[in-house]
Amino acid sequence: MASFVDRVVLHVSGGTGGHGCVSVKREKFKPLGGPDGGNGGNGGDVILRVSAQTTTLLDYHHAPHRHATNGGPGMGDWRGGKNGETLILPVPDGTVVKTKDGQVLADLVGEGTEYVAAAGGQGGLGNAALSSQKRRAPGFALLGIEGDSSDIVLELKSIADIALVGFPSAGKSSLIAAMSAARPKIADYPFTTLIPNLGVVEAGDVRFTIADVPGLIEGASEGKGLGHNFLRHVERCAALVHVLDCGTLESDRDPLSDLAIIEAELEKYAVDMSYAGVDGEVVPLNERPKLVVLNKVDLPDGKDMAEFVRPDLEARGYRVFEVSATSHEGLRQLGFAMAEIVKAARDAVQTAPPKVAAPVLRPRAVNESGFKIRREEKNLEPLFRVLGEKPVRWVKQTDFTNEEAIGYLADRLAKLGVETELFKVGAKPGDTVVIGEDDGVVFDWEPTMMAGAELLATPRGTDIRIADIGDRPTRSQKREEQIERREAKAAARAELEAERKAGIWTESVSGRRARTVRESTLDSGDDD
Description:
six-stranded mixed β-sheet; 12 helices; five-stranded mixed β-sheet; 19% strand; alpha/beta
């Protein structure tokens, strides 16, 4: 079973806000003491926090779904609902938060650094908070809103100053164990190291960390060996140290060919350029300062191989160190060389002026309405979609089983200017209007004939305008009535045309009356 996980997909969702309460204060000798419904509690947030006690993302690999607690509903006597508890998720130092598309949301470095992964939903207002001088006793309350939910990717990038790269069994883990107090697993077979190892090294007054990259071989960019999975752990490093095996027993390998292969794999690796460090720049791995370590010089063949390849490496511009992790030969000089590079990198970060983007203040335009209306077409019928933070939120807060709440929503939308804008874009009574995106609320638009439901003498929880709208015919009913009127008109025209062809229209009025009298007289005479 895996014990080290450095990349997970986490499904987080904030808590849902509690619903507001509808209540009226009732006391002895005071049966209607006014509304006293409390507000609902806010939902809990989901927060990622860097913890020194966490070194892996294993817990989120086994349980990737995390949800904060919901807010409690409001209660009578002005009692508000309990807020949902914040869910704190500890993550290792150096965790990068991304979207599934690769967009960086946060880079969590430093103990206690936090990021709100999913905000909790807002609690609904009770009828006490909704009361006003005009609406003294609301018979409705606002609903709580669901919290944010998203799928985020957590990637662990170790905080290390120096990265050790090289072929398997080149001695990277042995080097870390010899230079620091770290005790990684060491064996005499390839791919012993399956997770990045970290060690702390002190050289003079400089203290720094070193890390190794396991399983980097030729074809790693194509997924061979352990691939490039662990190269993200050295993206924060100031320098790379090539650990070359001078005592290898494989006839087709030598330090120079190993170096060329590793350099080629580093060049193929694409550093995450979407995040820039403190200096605002990201340097590719193959362009960072490098040291070359010729390891295993304690072996006779290793010493000879190191002396053979060293002139060639120095001619290429590399700083070369002959070391032995077993006898600790050359480790002191290597440690001070690493400390020199680390100190120079830290001084450059401290002395470089911070690159801070100039703040751009964009005040809200005077004529900005806070929403927009998009005209669409569905089933050859016009459709108008209302988009905006306020209209969408108001719809989520509305209890559509309460007529007064629906009327309150209509008043809010009218006050915001939604109806006026619908008229401007060509909407007609009966057209389909959607508030929100795909999961928005759909209704047949009927313009508000009169505003101010608080002035209407209707029982609490009802709205006379909603009843009127309920009696109005729907679009399908209007269409059927129109078809019936057309058929009736066509039948009337056909009857008139038949009378005209029969010559009935050629008689005068007096003649028609005389003919009618004669016919009636003859009919009466026949009866006698």
